[in-house]
Amino acid sequence: MSKAIEEMNWWKNFYNNNKENFTNIREKDWFNRSKNLPGLKDEIGVGLDYGCGLLSMLEFSGLKFDAIDPLIDGYREILALPDNYQKDTNKKYDWILCCNVLDHTDKPEELIADIKNKLKPGGRLYLEINFDDSLGNCHYEIYNKEKVDSLIDLEMIFETTERIEQDKQTAYYAKYKS
Known about the structure:
Order of helices and strands: HHEEHEEHEHEE
Number of helices: 5
Number of strands: 7
Shape: globular
Oligomer: single chain
Helix content: 25-40%
Largest sheet: 7 strands, mixed
Distance between the termini: 37 Å
Radius of gyration: 15 Å
Strand content: 25-35%
């Protein structure tokens, strides 16, 4: 089974098992990410949720944003999504949020190049990636700080990690400037 189908099935199952609380879960995701990525909740201009998943957590932020994901057509079969959700965009953004996406692509160099192309000069990239203890079905490889540093050649403004024992992973958060 392809990784894209695995990803779509994960979201379908997650949504079906959490229909009553799904939006509350995504709102909690926003709260947790925003506290670990200083400055995100105060961003101005228009941002982009790069790899938004079934529902962007930015829906709960009050921020102006677009959302892209290559699986957006499949997500629309599960949940009604606003028009600012697309497969891709050619716009430039003041800031980009990229959460748990880098390890879900087989072409991370192209993904980072695309993010940099979509950022306006001086734009900010907010990155979250899980440094998992083992490889999950939807992941292409296990990441660590050295791997991330080798891919992203933007000015780092902030970084931190948080160990999540129940998930056997470390969440890595970083903010960069183009």
